[in-house]
């Protein structure tokens, strides 16, 4: 699937006497903002804006290149426990890992994403992209709230859930999601859960 500024190429290579015509499915608008400027101007990305400023990633997001930002909305940040959010925001390394887990190494318009695709993030982890009907899914969940916000250095898709990589989780949080959750309960009952957090 070929796209031009996220417009789908419908018919290619119509040769004319003075050039070539390619037919696309939408009008291409002028793009002037970088990904960083998109973050700075969108009210629904206020928490993300704060997180990017605290992690010194703004330079990357306004630099030349072609990236995809899966931008967590304010709603996405509100879904995780306040204690967990404050811990990540207060830990520069965990915060950078969290944000890098939301940035893909290439610009991917929604039209060009194929079900079952695995994409690498700047953090070095992978995300599974699929489809549920006409909705895009990430790691099996239809969490993309708005797609194909074009920037001069890539594309932004708004997501309404936070994608937290293992590197940004405590031992306790990892254990609760795994096959050792009963052991975690025993640690908590013994008053030792603080060692895991």
UniProtKB/TrEMBL annotation:
Superkingdom classification of source: Eukaryota
Q: Name one GO cellular component term.
A: extracellular matrix
Q: Which GO terms describe its molecular function?
A: cell adhesion molecule binding
Report the Pfam families cross-referenced here.
Fasciclin
Q: Spell out where the chain crosses the membrane.
A: none
Q: What are the residue boundaries of the FAS1 domain, all occurrences included?
A: 1-28, 32-163
The record's Gene Ontology biological-process terms are: cell adhesion; extracellular matrix organization
Put simply, this protein is called BGH3 protein
Q: Which organism is it from?
A: Oreocharis arfaki (tit berrypecker)
Q: Which gene encodes it?
A: Tgfbi
